[in-house]
Design a protein that fits this description.
heterodimer, A: about 120 residues, Immunoglobulin-like, six-stranded mixed beta sheet, globular, B: mainly beta, four-stranded antiparallel beta sheet, 11 strands
Chain lengths: ~120, ~110
């Protein structure tokens, strides 16, 4: 079974600074997707960024980028120019690509605080 | 993208009672997923609901406690039965996009059992 590990229960960053959230995963599959989801106090799960395992290029979405190291099974999220609105729980998630309609496997989450 | 309307957004219930949570999607989807998020914890999959067949439950979750209906391709309900304070959690429904490369979530139902 696949597992996702987030080793940082809490992180903090100064406004406008950069922070990196760590995620490692374990799988024997070669085809899969990785995600970072943000959950603010509103409870809504918001997709931040997605990475397909077959793509070597790291995904980027505005201030959010990932460092995807497939051999090391590492998938970290970098948030640049942090803003107060970035404060939330961040979940790393894995999905198998071998079959359709498979659920996500989530890490335990990292609570990010942004200090003004 | 898919828009999911989940109701109720929150409820406070007496122990021993049941609560039914509804998820309505703005497009037809094959699978719907129900997750539980206990306080301060991550999301755990309860079951997968496929239209026209019984839901598939994960280890630790049983149909008698969490009955699920999936009457059509845009709607599903999860019932939390005979509730106890340990059932106090956020419950979320989720669907995939058509390419199965992204999951969309409802707003979540915050359940408190007293």
């Amino acid at each position: 079974a696949q597992t996702v590990t987030q080793s940082q229960p809490e992180m903090s960053v100064q406004e406008a600074e950069t922070v990196t959230l760590s995620c490692t995963y374990d799988t024997s599959e070669s085809d899969y997707y990785l995600f970072w989801y943000k959950q603010p106090p509103s409870r809504q799960m918001i997709l931040v960024i997605r990475q397909e395992a077959y793509k070597q290029q790291n995904a980027t979405e505005n201030r959010f980028s990932v460092n995807f190291q497939k051999a090391a099974k590492s998938f970290s999220l970098k948030i640049s120019d942090s803003q107060l609105g970035d404060a939330a729980m961040y979940f790393c998630a894995y999905r198998s690509g071998l079959s359709r309609n498979t659920p996500l496997v989530f890490g335990k989450g990292t609570r990010l605080s942004v200090i003004a | 993208s898919a828009v999911i309307s989940q109701k109720p957004s929150r409820d406070i219930c007496q122990r021993g009672t049941s609560l039914t949570i509804q998820c309505q999607v703005d497009s037809q989807v094959t699978m719907m997923f129900w997750y539980r998020q206990q306080p301060g914890q991550s999301l755990t999959l309860i079951a997968t609901a496929n239209q026209g067949s019984e839901a598939t439950y994960e280890s630790g979750f049983v149909i008698d406690k969490f009955p699920i209906s999936r009457p059509n391709l845009t709607f599903s309900t999860l019932t939390v039965s005979n509730m106890s304070p340990e059932d106090s959690s956020i419950y979320l429904c989720s669907v995939d996009n058509s390419l199965n490369t992204e999951a969309f979530f409802g707003q979540g139902t915050r359940l408190t059992v007293v």
